[in-house]
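To: structure subgroup
Subject: Chain for Friday's discussion

All,

I'm putting the inputs and outputs inline so they're searchable in the archive.
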Amino acid sequence: MSLVLPGQHVAAQHVNLKLGPGLLQTSGDASTSAPPIIATRAGTLKHNANGSKWWVENNSLRYVPAAQESVIGVIIQKAGEGFRVDIGSAQAASLDGLAFEGATKRNKPNLKIGSLVYARVSLAHKDMEPELECFDAQTRKSEGFGELKGGFMVRCSLAMCRQLLDSKHFLLPMLGARFPLETAIGVNGRVWVNAKDVREVIGIARCIEAVDPNGGGMDEAGIANLLRNLGL
């Protein structure tokens, strides 16, 4: 990991290289064997274990859509055959009514204004409105995407969402050991939680807000004490 600034060249190489948010492959010139890759935003340069995926991670206040990222959106308008969705970015995203598992022109989901959806960004470009889909593009199966019914949406920092997506983070396993729960984590600063009891849902939400580095930044011992105080 290293810090990068906008315009800085990044030495990312792999036979199946995939660039994530914050990186751009430029056109280059004939004298270079591979087009140079530059950072488009300041942050920490990261990559996966085998070096095939690279991205720049930072804790910006507003979500910037990137292709293949999972987000939680709120339906704000019905638009023709689809919907307009608030995902917390500068522009609302569009969601086609057919971008669901098993959807046809005669059998489309009837989402209402205010409904929550868990979706994947299928198109993200600075000059275009982002587009969403609620299925896996290869299998055409929902793979967990679609309308989120019941539960509660917690708003938190983008950094907190990335921490919760890390299997090594303590919070969700700690809560799951105490009571059954469901979660959907969007990298756009939103987490959907559900449990059998309303008190448990409120407890999960309070724990996420307490651990958030932009909030309390509470550690495992602090959360254990908070749960005792909540009677969970």
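Points worth raising on Friday:
The chain is about 15% helix and 35% strand.
The longest helix spans residues 198-211.

D.
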